Amino acid sequence: MVQASVSTNITLETVIDLFLEKLGEPTNEWQHQALEEYKKGDVKAVKKIYASHLRDYYSKCLGFLVSATSTNPNLGKILAAAANAVADYAQVKALEQISSGNAIAFESADLVGNATTNILKFLTPRTDYHQLALASRTNYDALKELEKENPEDHLIKALLYLTKATPDSPVLYTIIAEAATTAALHTRNLEHQEISNAIDAALIS
């Protein structure tokens, strides 16, 4: 089975490092400021930056992480909130990247093929049924059968949308938009699961 592996020897420091790895480098001025204040351990300053940029999940995540210490009695809740923020940030980044790729695809001779290829890059398999779904990605009936067994799975849902993406479809752009949005949700779920697994391992150890 294709699963994300998590070491059983995980500490809080390892989890924090994973969060920072997932966030990556800042992309704007306030993210840079938030990261600098986080490194200084200035709780008030980091939270102030987030409170001034409420739609920025990067700053939001750091606003939680700056309080994530082993002596904090609310550590579990803080890490869970940070996990949601970093997953939301991954979703936003995926949407931006897919949007840019779609814009290029829409100007190409093979609009559907290139848009599909662009979206598929964000449908990373993590389970056996993900692998089956990708192997059957042009088979609508096979995908529907997999969906029955995994009704909430966003990878399968995205592939189902893509089976309907034909050049002559009057709702082609709507289909591609729905597939792209669903692929970004899949990305969010993968990030959240990986972080949550690490958190659970750290809190148990």
Explain this structure to me?
With 205 residues, the protein is an all-alpha fold. The protein has helices at residues 12-23, 29-40, 43-52, 57-65, 75-105, 111-120, 128-135, 140-149, 154-163, 172-204. Helix 3 (43-52) packs antiparallel against helix 4 and helix 9 (154-163) packs antiparallel against helix 10.
Any descriptors?
mainly alpha; 205 residues
Helix-strand category:
mainly alpha
The fraction of residues assigned to DSSP E strands is under 5%
Number of strands: 0
The helix content is over 70%
State the distance separating the first and last CA atoms. 25 Å
Report the C-alpha radius of gyration, rounded.
Answer: 19 Å
Q: Report the uncertain regions.
A: 1-8
Q: Topology as H/E string?
A: HHHHHHHHHH
The total count of helices amounts to 10
Mean pLDDT: 94
What's this, in brief?
By secondary structure, the chain is mainly alpha-helical. The protein has helices spanning 12-23, 29-40, 43-52, 57-65, 75-105, 111-120, 128-135, 140-149, 154-163, 172-204. Mean pLDDT is 94; it is low at 1-8.
Topology (elements, then pairings):
Layout: H1 12-23, H2 29-40, H3 43-52, H4 57-65, H5 75-105, H6 111-120, H7 128-135, H8 140-149, H9 154-163, H10 172-204
